[in-house]
Design a protein that fits this description.
By secondary structure, this protein is mainly α. Helix content is 64%, strand content 5%. The protein has 4 helices and 2 strands. The chain has helices at 14-38, 62-111, 121-178, 214-223, and strands at residues 43-48, 54-59. The protein has a two-stranded antiparallel sheet with strand order 1-2. The model is unreliable at 181-202 and 208-223 (pLDDT under 50).
């Protein structure tokens, strides 16, 4: 005879319900025992009958199972609380960051002259003050950078001047050793010999012949 499928509902007959409870209780205890032996698992099983009688199975013992379960429940509860607090804190932080980003973007647009229609006179005055302070800081920084560049150029100029003087001195010493420069005093232009040339300047009235036409001068030369 084929066994029919058991309907999952309360058995109304008291005797049948008690018989079914006993059979399935024993089968459940047996399965718990097999699970603990075959899989080396710690198993705890507690069953209360309809009349309130306790049936239990614990491997290695019910007391150790309950202590471990209680410890795990407390840790899990604390982890859930901490996780929930962290989640709420992260949500608040994200909301604050989003609001800060929105305000910064709005301020940036207003500093660029965009979206000023909704600004009051006080807000416009604040924006103007911020722009002036920012421009002052920019000019100060620019002045500092230019001063630093000027100082570096001056240092470079001094180094080049010293190097140039050193090269002139070496060149003069080399020429003196070769005998190309006399022992006379030299000026301040790299040891070049100073030569004085005496010239005589004569001032006289202009010659009439200098202003005669070329043809007239040619005729005079033929007559002579």
């Amino acid at each position: 005879m084929v066994r029919g499928k058991t309907q999952m509902k309360r058995i109304e007959n008291t005797t049948s319900r008690q018989v079914t409870f006993s059979k399935r209780r024993n089968g459940l205890l047996k399965k718990a025992y097999e699970l603990s032996v075959l899989c080396d698992a710690e198993v705890g099983l507690i069953v209360f009958s309809p009349r309130g009688k306790l049936y239990e199975f614990g491997s290695p013992s019910m007391q150790k199972i309950l202590e471990r379960y209680q410890k795990y429940s407390e840790e899990n509860s604390m982890n859930n609380i901490v996780g929930e607090e962290n989640t709420q804190s992260l949500k608040r932080e994200i909301a604050n960051m989003e609001e800060t980003i929105r305000l910064l973007e709005s301020t940036q647009r207003k500093m660029l002259g965009e979206g000023l229609a909704s600004c009051s006179v006080k807000e416009l005055n604040n924006l103007e003050s911020q722009a002036e302070r920012g421009l002052s800081h920019i000019r100060t920084r620019k002045t500092e950078m230019l001063k630093n560049q000027i100082d570096q150029l001056k240092k470079k100029e001094g180094m080049l001047s010293e190097e140039n003087a050193f090269l002139h001195k070496k060149c003069a010493e080399a020429r003196y050793m070769d005998g190309s420069v006399s022992a006379s005093p030299t000026n301040g232009f790299g040891g070049v010999e100073q030569i004085e040339v005496e010239t005589q300047l004569v001032i006289r009235p202009p010659n009439v012949q200098d202003h005669l036409p070329v043809k007239y001068l040619h005729c005079n030369s033929l007559l002579n």
